[in-house]
Specification:
The protein contains 25 helices and 16 strands. Among the domains are: 42 residues, no CATH class; 121 residues, Orthogonal Bundle (DNA polymerase, domain 1), CATH 1.10.150; 109 residues, Nucleic acid-binding proteins (OB fold (Dihydrolipoamide Acetyltransferase, E2P), Beta Barrel), CATH 2.40.50.140; 72 residues, no CATH class. The strands form five sheets. A five-stranded mixed β-barrel has the order 8-9-10-12-11. It has a four-stranded mixed β-sheet with strand order 15-14-13-16, with helices on one face.
């Protein structure tokens, strides 16, 4: 007894007369479309034709990318009529660069792309058909036969034309039907019945079909033993055989997205990010892919960005509407105001021109965190602290617009009228680390830099290898390397074999993201150091057997526990002396002195003066980062 009603996600039935004359119908109160009370198994015997109509977001991605190309004045590729022979597409996919490519995005699929190294559309059709439970076991067979590492077996000389393109591997339902036609003289209708019986594992029908297959093969001169072997093999494959026409349609879309990625990466990545504007995890993946491909992404900017992602001057421009806790409609209104009346001149001009109903304090704070005000106020801490003042000013400006009155208070330009402009808050600027942490809060990932950028010298001295350079080290024979990164995610699992907890860490370094497996003992001893946002240094073993590098933690230490530098050379302006002294005094209160610090001062006549500070002073990575964040400090170098 069925206790509830459900509706097929994409199933649509078509009849030759009103449906209520053929099947009982049901009206879900939550839907405006009736549904059949028969399930998909019984609608066809009742006289209906069933279709599955799929709505694919990828088609919108393609259309949006083409729109970006057209808007930039480029030539729009005719993807509908293009041949499938662009070598750049296959070169891209052969490296495993499947991010954003339809059906090719999972890590397993990307590994398989690198293994298969597709060089024609038939490979993509086969891969889409094979990469599923069941037929997946034949991927290695296909790859080994393709590259001549294994002999191709066509089962019977007459089947070479059917199995040649798949190197003897039965992949498609159409191949099952053709084998029955060629070896046993099946008609097309009979072959389709055989395909259905095999696919649905209908035992009685299969018994009849086996007799028919063997008799037909014998009549064509095929030995009974060979015919039985082929029938059982075909039966095994047919259970999970894929419809080639379906796979070919998917492969065509995969090729088109691959074509856009290979030939128009800026527009393609902008389209991908546009369709996942509210999905931070996806945006982070696309951002890392853009970095890997050297595709420029410009940060959010109230005088450049649109509400959605856009393309300008060969770069993806980050969407204002993708900043967290920012309304898309508010950003659309902001962009319209900028187009109508020109760029915003400063924070006060911005506050006077925006609608306060659309922009609240939280919105302004997150725009400041994200760096959207950098073009009119480079000090993000000051822009952040000014949010409440700006909200009050925006409300006052709206009141005056509503009452059509001119302010009694003079602005910067008395002749133009306007509101009195208060002084911006006087707050300490954020350090480089604070700036990135605030940006992470607003964006969801590091966009303009990375927390480890300031420690690159120290990391290099300790032999740390960034993940982008790891393949080169492995190619040189390395089986273990030292890595460093900021913990982005920690996913703990329970081992089915031992019952102990282990973890997959997702870490970020200045060159990209990577995963590290942490065994149960290491997880237990290092769990406190592996909180999200923590910076760690990891000694990792490497497994490169599957072409995709895999990292296994042998040792983990918090980066803040890393040894201090022997000394620092700080190059700065004279005006920054007091701020540097204050930072060092604060550091000395919480850390012991371990190194020497030399100050290189720029003098007004263009010369430099070097001053060694007395005593031993803190020179740890956090101290280095704090000094780099002082306004007027040009550089901090290890000595």
């Amino acid at each position: 007894m069925l206790r509830n009603a459900s509706t097929h996600a994409a199933g649509v039935v078509i009849g030759d007369r009103p449906l209520d004359e053929l099947v009982p119908l049901y009206q879900d109160p939550r839907s405006d479309m009736p549904a059949t009370q028969f399930n998909m198994k019984w609608v066809e015997p009742a006289g209906l034709v069933k279709f599955d109509f799929l709505g694919l977001k990828t088609l919108t991605v393609i259309a949006r990318a083409l729109g970006y190309i057209e808007k930039a004045g480029g030539k729009i590729p005719d993807l509908e009529n293009a041949s499938f022979d662009d070598p750049k597409v296959y070169e891209l996919l052969s490296t495993g660069a499947g991010i954003g490519v339809f059906q090719m995005e999972s890590s397993g699929m990307r590994d398989t792309l690198a293994k298969m190294k597709p060089d024609k559309i038939e490979d993509l059709i086969a891969l889409i058909s094979l990469y599923r439970p069941g037929p997946m076991k034949n991927i290695d067979v296909y790859v080994d036969r393709k590259f001549g590492r294994a002999e191709v077996d066509y089962l019977h000389p007459d089947l070479k034309t059917v199995l040649d393109e798949t190197y003897g591997v039965i992949i498609y339902q159409e191949q099952v039907m053709q084998i029955a036609q060629i070896l046993s003289g099946y008609s097309l209708g009979e072959a389709d019945l055989l395909r259905r019986a095999m696919g649905k594992k209908q035992k009685d029908e299969m018994a009849r079909q086996k007799v028919r297959f063997l008799e037909g093969a014998e009549a064509k001169g095929v030995s009974r033993g060979k015919a039985e072997y082929i029938f059982e093999l075909v039966n095994e494959f047919a259970g999970y055989g894929f419809n080639k026409s379906h796979a070919a349609a998917y492969a065509a879309i995969a090729y088109r997205t691959g074509y856009l990625k290979a030939n128009h990466p800026v527009e393609f990545l902008a389209a991908l990010m546009s369709l996942d504007r509210s999905n931070v995890e996806k945006l982070a993946v696309f951002f890392q892919e853009a970095r890997r491909m050297d595709t420029p992404i410009r940060p959010p900017d109230i005088n450049l960005s649109e509400a959605d992602f856009s393309v300008k001057d060969g770069a993806v421009v980050y969407a204002l509407g993708a900043v967290r806790n920012v309304s898309l409609s508010a950003m659309e209104a902001l962009a319209e105001e900028r187009k109508a009346n020109g760029p915003f001149r400063d924070l006060f001009d911005f506050a006077e021109r925006v609608d306060p109903k659309l922009l609240n304090k939280r919105t302004l704070e997150n725009l400041a965190r994200a760096g959207a005000f950098d073009s009119i106020e480079p000090d993000r801490a000051r822009a952040f602290a000014a949010a409440e003042t700006l909200c009050a000013m925006a409300n006052k400006a709206q009141e005056e617009r509503d009452t059509a009155q001119v302010s009694l208070f003079g602005g910067a330009d008395p002749d133009a009228g306007g509101l009195a402009r208060p002084k911006l808050p006087d707050v300490p600027p954020w350090t480089a680390t604070q700036r990135l942490d605030e940006e992470l809060t607003a964006i969801g990932y590091y966009l303009s830099g990375h927390p480890l950028d300031d420690q690159a010298d120290m990391l290099a001295r300790r032999g740390v290898v960034f993940v982008a350079d790891a393949p080169d080290r492995v190619a040189d024979g390395a089986s273990a390397i030292r890595m460093a990164g900021v913990v982005r995610r920690r996913q703990e699992r329970v081992s089915q074999r031992t019952g102990k907890r282990f973890a997959w860490l997702t870490l970020s370094d200045p060159s990209g993201e990577f995963e590290v497996l942490v065994n149960p003992d290491m997880l237990q001893s290092s769990r406190d150091a592996l909180e999200v946002g923590a910076s760690v240094m990891i000694s990792a073993s490497i497994d490169d057997k599957e072409e995709q590098l895999r990292f296994f933690a042998d040792n983990i230490e918090a980066l803040e526990d890393a040894p201090a530098a022997a000394g620092l050379k700080v190059r700065l302006n004279v005006d920054a002396l007091e701020s540097v002294k204050a930072r060092l005094d604060r550091a000395a209160d919480s850390a012991k002195g371990e190194g020497v610090i030399h100050l290189i001062l720029s003098v007004s006549d263009g010369s430099e003066a070097e001053l060694r500070l007395p005593g031993r002073l803190p020179t740890t990575p956090p101290v280095q980062a704090a000094l780099r964040g002082v306004k007027g400090v040009e550089s901090v170098e290890l000595i």
